[in-house]
Amino acid sequence: MNSKLILGLASLVLMTGFSGSAFADSTEACPAILQHTFNRLQDDSPQNLCQYKGKVALVVNTASYCGFTSQYEGLEKMYAKYADKGLVVLGFPSNDFGKQEPGSSKEIADFCFNTYGVKFPMFAKSSVRGDQVNPLHAELIKATGTTPKWNFYKYLIDRKGNVVEAYSSITTPDDKKLVADIEKALAQ
């Protein structure tokens, strides 16, 4: 390469502030576990989970016709209480257990909002186990060694993208251990 071209490229790099490490830092800022895109439940618009980087995330597989469905109310209360401190609840409707989520995205979204006032982020129906498992749940299963056993199974992810714990369906949103784990993660 001639020296003028090299000097020109070097000047361009300096003027734009681009450096290889800056580029690497921007891609590394989003933890690997959040580097997935899912369609939003309400309108099927693609949502990159990296928008939640730096937050504590409680990932929950949900269903509208389950004995645990009333947990939506507690999850929404938890989200409202801790959202300003950095908690996000991420809902993933699934028909994997007892076919208890048979509806369309619109039906599920309407049910969640009209029945429980759900405002936390919800995503289009997907599988959370088996051959068709969505990529986030595949990573959560790998990280914890535990697969969801039923609807409203929960995984807690800290601000750095580390999976903290998995919680059974019978763990309610006001469970003392779950709340303590969330508060500890929020404090870090």
Helical coverage, percent range: 25-40%
Largest sheet: 4 strands, mixed
By CATH, the topology of the largest domain is Glutaredoxin
Enumerate the strands of the largest sheet in spatial order, edge to edge or round the barrel. Answer: 4-3-5-6
User: Outline, from the CA principal axes?
Assistant: globular
Q: From the 3D coordinates, which CATH architecture of the largest domain would you assign?
A: 3-Layer(aba) Sandwich
Describe the oligomeric state of these chains in a short phrase. single chain
Under CATH at level 1, the class of the largest domain stands as: Alpha Beta
Radius of gyration: 20 Å
Distance between the termini: 50 Å
Number of helix segments? Answer: 6
Mean pLDDT: 89
**How many beta-strand segments?**
6
* Beta fraction: 15-25%
Order of helices and strands: HHEEEHEHHEEH
What's the CATH H-level superfamily name of the largest domain? Glutaredoxin
- The total domain count is 2
Structural class: alpha+beta
**Poorly predicted parts:** 5-26
